[in-house]
Amino acid sequence: MKAFTCPQCGASLEYERIVTVTVKCHYCNSVVVVPVDLRPPPPPTPPRPEREPLNSFGDSRPNKTVPALIVALVLIGGLSLLIVGLSRSSSNTNRSTGLFSTPTPRRTPTPVPTPDPGYTVAFTFGAEGTGPGFFKDEMDVAVDGEGRVYVSDDTRRVQRFDASGNFLGTWTIPSETKWYKRLRGGPDKLLAPRWGSQVYAVLAGVVAKFEGATGEVLGAAHGSDYVHDATLIPDGGLLMVTQKGDDDELVLMGGDGRVSRRTHRFVSSLLDKQLTVKALRVAADGTGNTFALYALGDVYGEHWYDDDDLAVFRFTPEGKYVSRFGSGGHEPGQFGVPSAIAVDNQSRIYVCEPFNKVHIYADDGRHLSTFEAPHMVKALTFDAANHLYIAGGHKVSKLVLTR
């Protein structure tokens, strides 16, 4: 036990072990310095390190000679490799480049050529909707002699665009007139002649005539019972696919509005079977040759047919059958379920499938080529400059053919 007196209050301070130089009085809380003889012994002095050998500088600083020598050797080795690399590089370059050589350029992969689609796209417009430049459901397209584009959809609207695809205006087909009744959608087809400013539309079983700028109804042409399709012919007349009873009939109407010829069962008699008349499409070239297509692509519901039924049937301007070409299938010259037909100013026939394939045939039936359009194709037509217009998938495109 170690004891001493507190110099402040005189109390006896007793400690079994003292480990610090000062202690606290238990009575007056004063800090008391422990007498020297009662303090713990000082910690032993650590041994003094041996004197380091003198370095190259003549003192006892750490010897850095060996690390410095290693660094120097590394630098010398790296410099040697650099000199060797430069000498090798310079030996592989043109002597006229002097001391510095031009680095070898990185090799660029050769681009894979893109197949020529057979056309360039002059413009595309449209999207799904009901506003200006927007379309709903089934579409058709026609181009007049001034290059104005007319586009219809299932809302009974006909929208007009200029030759550059800029929106001009909209008019709506009446749902009922003195020439037809109960029009709910459509029209089924639009036609624009190369002359005048009128537009024709196949709708409600007739071919109605409208003023192209305003939509004023000017009249209508009737077939036998019900008109399903029509095309314009060079003299300003119409060729109409009409239904008489359950049979198909081709009606030729002159520019004066008079019927000059009727061909009863003009396609079904060639197949020796009854056809779905609303599936027949018709087109004509500049000399009056007629091309009829059995196009189930726009017919809804269940229909029975053979692949051979899906063909193009050619008739002379007088209505005489000449030949047939094409058929259903996937081989060259064959097509899936087609939806429309058109003829250009070189009498080449274009048949489209509802997705994006367009097949081209010579007037004698030879298959020339097939190309994929930039979007869905449900309708097609040509302008006076032989540019192809396609409509489908809520879009319209003008294609400039390159072959």
How does this structure look, described?
There is one protein chain. This protein is mainly beta and 403 residues long. It has two helices and 30 strands. The chain has helices spanning 65-91, 268-271; strands at residues 2-5, 12-15, 22-24, 31-33, 119-125, 140-143, 149-152, 157-161, 167-172, 189-191, 198-203, 206-211, 217-222, 226-232, 238-244, 247-253, 259-264, 280-284, 290-294, 312-315, 321-325, 327-328, 334-335, 340-343, 349-352, 357-361, 367-372, 379-382, 388-392, 395-401. The strands form nine sheets. A four-stranded antiparallel sheet has the order 5-30-29-28, with no helix packed on it. A hairpin with a 5-residue loop joins strand 16 (247-253) and strand 17 (259-264). The protein is rod-shaped, with a radius of gyration of 48 Å. The model is unreliable at 53-62 and 89-102 (pLDDT under 50).
Structural class call reads: mainly beta
Global geometry: rod-shaped
Strand content: 35-45%
Question: What's the β-strand tally?
Answer: 30
| Strand neighbour order, sheet with most strands | 5-30-29-28
How many H/I helical runs? 2
End-to-end C-alpha gap: 119 Å
Mean pLDDT: 84
Radius of gyration: 48 Å
Q: What is the helix content?
A: under 10%
Largest sheet entry: 4 strands, antiparallel
